[in-house]
Structure formats: structure tokens, C-alpha cells
Amino acid sequence: MKALICNEPGRLSLVSRPEPVPAPNEVLVRIRHVGICGTDFHIFAGKHPFLEYPRVMGHELSGTVEQAPEGSRLRQGEPVYIVPYLSCGTCQACSKGLTNACRNIRVLGVHCDGGMAEYLCVPEQNVVPTGGIALEDAAMIEFLAIGAHGVKRGNIGAKDRVLVTGSGPIGMSAIIFAKARGAHVTVMDTRQDRLTFAVERLGADTILIANDQAEAEAERQTGGDWYDVVIDATGNAIPMQRGFNFLNHGARYVLLSVVRQDITFSDPEFHKREITLFASRNAQPDDFAEVVRQMEAGKVPTRALNTHHGRLEDGVSLFSEWSRPETGVIKAILDV
To answer: Which residues lie below 8 Å from residue 304, measured CB to CB, with a gap of 6+?
Structure first.
């Protein structure tokens, strides 16, 4: 089979590998579409801290069942999406249903080879029928589930005034699911094109330019009440720390971003406002199901999000092109 492998930072190659043979509890999936994530670009650039090369990337995956275990609920040829988080099922977190925070978690395309290949063997529990969702849309379910999980962590409701900082794909997913819960959503970023997209295509209510005047403008827009929930999706320690400035008394702060640096904040302000701080990691099965529900309800503008397409065979050249900001990629998908 063909596979796109990252041999070392900055070097991809299309290789031929033996087709994998599934274990008794695994499904052999014929991969059809692979969404390209910021994690993949970090691997390509050599910036991922938990990775060994060479690595077949790819964790935003959809395909069809090629072979299923005897007695499986899945049938050959069935369209499916893949939950890429391989949890152990035995640690304390897993025993509580927190499979996204498994102590021994392995993520496809990061800790083990992923789906930038024609075939992939996956545990049956991680393979889910797409229902009525188009296969190319199903390749976007995973990144959307990240935002859905963060919105759930923040317990966002219709009465909440929400600020999403960072309007890349993960920030966009948070906007979509906060709006699906009826919240008033403001988006802050440095890029006017992304802010315009958030309003015109995702339904965001207001915007903030992330400049020196952002706090003053936020205070003006909210009448001094600030925000009930702030969701950070910047991936940068400086704006993550700045996000504390925008929180109302009794507010919740959800960190979708993860960085290697320490994050600091004013303890007196934290206690005075009785802020609740949430980490948000990966997603859980009900988050994936929520994405599918909202897709079926027409609340996810998949055609607008899916901006770039290419063939797996052209991935070597496309990766370098798509990694440049001027390309205007929101979500790029490789077709297998």
C-alpha cells in the first residue's frame, strides 16, 4: 500500500508498505480522507515534543470498512470515521469514563503511525459509522470534537457571554458549538480575514482585534461586565495569560491550547473573581456524537471550512504549500 511518511522534520516521502493485518479485535479500514491538523504541521516542522521519527501522520480520518472481526457490528464497505485516541481502558481515568485523559493514551499519527496511508488497523471500539455524514465531512469530525469538548467543559449555556481567543480551526470549532448552545460569542484574533469569516460563516456576534486596545474595547462592548466564559485557542503562552484579563466575576476559563511554558496569573484577581480554570484535552465519545448531531442539523458549515483538497500522492509538495499562512488554509484534506 501507499503511505506518506515524515522521515524527519521537513522531509516527507511517499513509500510502499505491506498492507497491515488486523488483530482479532481490530478493524481494517480503507482510508478515504485525511484532515490535516496543526499537530501534523508541527510534526513536519519538528516542533512536536512527544514524537519519534519516522512517523506516518494523520489522525483526522474517514474511510470504509475493509475487514471487521467476526460478530462485529460493522459490515464490509460501511462508511466510518475513526476516533484516534487509543486508551488503555484500565487506568483510573479510563475507569471513570475519562478516556480522553487516559494515563497511557496513544494518539494515531503521533505516538504510533496514523492514517496517511491506504489502509489502517484500528481497535473496533474506535471505529464509528458515519450515518448520513459525507465521508469527506467525516474527516473533519475529530477537530470539531475538540471544540465541542471545550464548550462542554465550560458548561456554556444560552445566557453566557463567551470570548473565543484565536480563530484557527480549533477556535472556529469552539465558536460553532458555543453558538449551537445559544451563547453570545465574541472572537479575538490579529487576523481580520479570520474574524470576518467567523462572523459571516460561523455566526459569531462580535469581534475584537488583538491589539493594545483589546481590553478597553471589550470593556466598552460588555458595559464593564466582561465575559462569563473565555476559551483560549491561540496556542501561545502570552495570549493565554492575557485571557485572564477578560473574565467576569464567577467566570470560567477553558484552555484548549497547550504549550510547553508555564502559565502564570494574578492570584488575588483569580480569587477575588472566583474564576474556575479548566484544561480541555482531546475529546470524548459524546463530543464526537455531538459533532455528528450538529452536522446533521446543518449547524456546521463544512463546505466553508473545507478550503483545500489534494491527493495523498501529491502530499509531499502540498504539505510545504499548505503550511504557509498566505495559502489561506482553514482545513486541508488529503484524498486517498
So the answer is: 197, 201, 330
Report whether 135 contacts 115 (CB < 8 A): no
Q: What's the pLDDT at 226?
A: 98
Determine the Cα–Cα distance for residues 178 and 310; give it in Å rounded to an integer: 31
In this predicted structure, what is the pLDDT of residue 76? 96
| Structural domains of the chain, with CATH | 2-139+301-335 (3.90.180.10), 147-279 (3.40.50.720)
Stretches where the chain sits below pLDDT 70 are 49
- Residue 240 CB burial class (10 angstroms; 0-12, 13-18, ≥19): buried
Q: Left if phi > 0, otherwise alpha if psi is -120 to 50, otherwise beta: which for 320?
A: alpha
Q: How far apart are CA 113 and CA 322, in angstroms?
A: 21
pLDDT, position 39: 87
pLDDT recorded at residue 259? 86
> Residue 146: which of 267, 35, 282 has the closest Cα?
282
CA nearest to 173, candidates 212, 216, 203: 203
- Which set of grid coordinates corresponds to residue 18? 505491506
pLDDT score at 207: 98
- Residue pair 74/126 in contact (Cβ under 8 Å)? The answer is no
Exposed e or buried b per residue across 146-159, where buried means at least 16 C-beta atoms within 10 angstroms of its C-beta: bbbbbbbbbebeee
d(CA 205, CA 16): 49
What DSSP assignment string belongs to 266-291? -HHHHHHTT-EEEE--S--HHHHHHH
pTM for the structure as a whole: 0.95
Residues 82, 108 contacting (CB under 8 angstroms) = yes
Question: 64-106, pLDDT tens digit by residue?
Answer: 999 999 999 999 999 999 999 999 999 999 999 999 999 999 9
